[in-house]
Amino acid sequence: xxxxxxxxxxxxxxxxxxxxxxxxxxxxxxxxxxxxxxxxxxxxxxxxxxxxxxxxxxxxxxxxxxxxxxxxxxxxxxxxxxxxxxxxxxxxxxxxxxxxxxxxxxxxxxxxxxxxxxxxxxxxxxxxxxxxxxxxxxxxxxxxxxxxxxxxxxxxxxxxxxxxxxxxxxxxxxxxxxxxxxxxxxxxxxxxxxxxxxxxxxxxxxxxxxxxxxxxxxxxxxxxx
Amino acid sequence: xxxxxxxxxxxxxxxxxxxxxxxxxxxxxxxxxxxxxxxxxxxxxxxxxxx
Lengths: 225, 51
Known about the structure:
The complex is a heterodimer of chains A (225) and B (51). By secondary structure, chain A is an all-alpha fold. Chain A is 75% helix and 0% strand. Chain B has one helix spanning 5-42. Chain B has 51 residues and is mostly helical. The mean pLDDT of chain B is 86. Chain B contains one helix and no strands. The A-B interface holds A 14, 23, 25-33, 36-37, 40, 79, 82-83, 86-87, 90-91, 93-94, 192, 196, 199-200, 203, 206-207, 210, 213-214, 217, 219-225 and B 1-5, 7-8, 10-12, 14-16, 18-19, 22-23, 26, 29-30, 32-33, 36-37, 40, 44-45, 47-50.
């Protein structure tokens, strides 16, 4: 049900971007990438915040369902962060005349992405489920430091990256139609995150249950991930 | 106005392509889990853990 709602909202947001949002006069059509680019950035950070909260819940309650949710949230958050970085590069090419620059915002978002890539790689290296869960929880909480660093980098440091809200006169000048599309896209991506998180965590729990069953038979299934 | 249609198409191709690829990955993983569970139920003692 949540997946259907997410798909419909995403389709609605995309159609609104295509047909009901004006073209920005200076940048042209590429500016329309911004609606999904910013939504992906928002959901990426939300997912990492959720992972830190799930991590804290695991540490306080020692229930494996919080560990599963932590790992699933990091994976989905990383997907959205990679989407954000790649779509940003495509947007930057015609506007900044370069695919990439070591601007504070771009640098901090890269650090954030690598922090969570390391989470996934290191988590796979721990076989004991309890140790893995404890490691993941602590990592998700500490790794979250990279999120406010990324969020505030464009507000506190000298950067060429635009800031949409919260910088006063330097805010992007969006008209009501553009703002409407932005908020619909943000909503669609948030629902999509919730749907993907539920699916991924359910699959992770099933994988773990099967692995335990197989471990009882003295074998370990290679999921090929 | 800058002519940036190609970048617009590329941007959405990347966004929607990656989202679709991840959904496909989840679908294939779900199928693999179902298949493994079915194998385990059919032959609980003979399953070697490798396909």
